[in-house]
Specification:
273 residues, Rossmann fold, Tumour Suppressor Smad4, 2 domains, 6-stranded antiparallel beta sheet
Length: 273
């Protein structure tokens, strides 16, 4: 059950007419309950408040955006699926107001999950946080990407591939899964290194502990896309060095009573009852 009384709720959504209308109805519903409500344009002005809950209205992409906002505010995030796949979200769209009623009654728990940070060339201005994954990818016409990899200062090898994915346990069901990586239960505080179309068959996914520091150096000429949770945030070039480690803040996800990870796997992946 929730340990905090919910008095502040943020609503995060994309600029889509249907979602705007749902957000408006939800805002009206919450204000009648005496809840202080914040929406998209308000978050940058807010101070951290761990009692706040950010509600994500949309699919997994919206949830990832809401998650980063929640982490900055020390808040928790509840995902309501109004998109397509909705693997990360906790509630299906038709249950929006039922879910919020449960939230206000305290019928929820909060799960903390590991998130990742990546710093490029020891530059604080190029420091990023990911909930799902970081991706380094070459363009189709570029030379094969070669990276030099070290873990905790010890050289692990050189690898040639079309790209690299560094994912959290939450992100293990996203891009890294399509690369042959394992499904990792989200409570596991580990992260994963995978390769896109590796040149060596021995370049297999590697699981790292939350205390491990992964270092990677680009050794190929060219401009390589650097993506955080599916969005391009920078470009990388030869000799750029990246350092991945556990972020100092965990992602806090709200779960309503009766939901579990294996139920989601069963439903979304069609594993059977």
């Amino acid at each position: 059950m929730g340990k905090v009384e919910v008095k502040k709720i943020g609503i995060f959504y994309k600029d889509d007419p249907y979602l705007v209308e749902i957000a408006r109805e939800l805002e009206s519903f919450l204000k009648k309950k005496g809840i202080e409500v914040f929406k998209n344009g308000d978050f940058e002005k807010l101070k951290p408040d761990e009692s706040m809950i950010v509600i994500s209205l949309g699919g997994d992409g919206t949830f990832l955006g809401a998650s980063r906002i929640a982490m900055k505010l020390d808040a928790s995030v509840l995902g309501i699926n109004l998109g397509n796949f909705g693997f990360l979200t906790d509630v299906e769209g038709m249950d929006v107001f039922i879910a919020v009623e449960k939230l206000l009654k305290g019928e929820f728990s909060i799960e903390e999950r590991l998130s990742l940070s990546c710093e490029i060339n020891s530059d604080e201005n190029r420091n990023y946080c990911a909930v799902n994954d970081f991706v380094i990818a070459k363009r189709i016409e570029d030379k094969i990407l070669q990276v030099d990899i070290a873990v905790n200062g010890y050289k692990a090898g050189k690898f040639r591939s079309d790209g690299v994915v560094v994912s959290t346990s939450t992100g293990s069901t996203a891009y890294s899964l399509s690369l042959g990586g394992p499904i990792i239960v989200p409570q596991a505080h580990v992260y994963e290194l995978s390769f896109i179309a590796p040149h060596k068959l021995s370049a297999r996914p590697l699981i790292l502990s939350e205390t491990d520091v992964l270092e990677l150096e680009i050794e190929t000429d060219g401009a390589f896309a650097f993506l955080r949770d599916g969005l391009k945030v920078n470009e990388l070039k030869k000799f750029d060095r990246l350092e991945f480690r556990k972020h100092d803040k965990n992602l806090k996800i709200v779960h309503l009573k009766g939901k579990n990870f294996f139920e989601v796997l069963n439903k979304k992946f069609g594993w059977g009852s």
